[in-house]
Design brief:
Order of helices and strands: HHHHH
Largest sheet: none
Radius of gyration: 23 Å
Helix content: over 70%
Strand content: under 5%
Structural class: mainly alpha
Number of strands: 0
Distance between the termini: 55 Å
Oligomer: single chain
Number of helices: 5
Length: 158
């Protein structure tokens, strides 16, 4: 049960990370086209789509990559799975809403956005991991040797 809760928490975290990125893209679009261009504000709509894409990506990654850790995956492979997950989400949206031929427009846009978010997510995860390693190495450096260990190391022991 604990394993599933951790995976669900991870999927929600990935969804929120992607939602923030897609929210930013919606803000840029809002600045370009103006405030009254749509019924639903672009940042809110894009943020919701980003959350759904992030959760979908997390599910696809869990199914396909299974037990691999982030440090065991390559950036291009991670980006491909992000593009596949976003493409899958665009297909589901087109079928659910009934947009028909709009998949030819939405599919590539979602796939590129998903690939970019996946690559960015992996880069952020690796940066955080590197920072943790640096913090841990500072603690090791402060540990030092005792006086007896230093004498023994220098050959001046008993």
């Amino acid at each position: 049960m604990k394993k599933w809760l951790r995976r669900i928490r991870g999927a929600i975290g990935m969804g929120l990370t992607w939602a923030a990125a897609w929210f930013g893209a919606g803000l840029i679009l809002l600045l370009v086209v103006g405030v009254g261009a749509a019924d639903v504000p672009f940042p809110v709509f894009f943020g919701l789509l980003g959350f759904l894409a992030g959760v979908t990506f997390s599910g696809v990654l869990g199914i396909v990559e299974g037990r691999r850790r982030f440090d065991q995956m390559s950036l291009p492979r991670f980006a491909v799975w992000g593009g596949v997950a976003a493409l899958l989400l665009s297909g589901i949206l087109v079928l659910a809403i009934g947009l028909g031929g709009e998949i030819l427009v939405l599919g590539p846009v979602f796939a590129l956005a998903g690939a970019g978010c996946a690559a960015g997510s992996l880069a952020l995860a690796r940066m955080a991991e590197d920072r943790e390693l640096l913090d841990a190495s500072a603690d090791v450096g402060e540990a030092g040797l005792t006086d007896d260990e230093a004498r023994e190391l220098l050959g001046g022991g008993s």
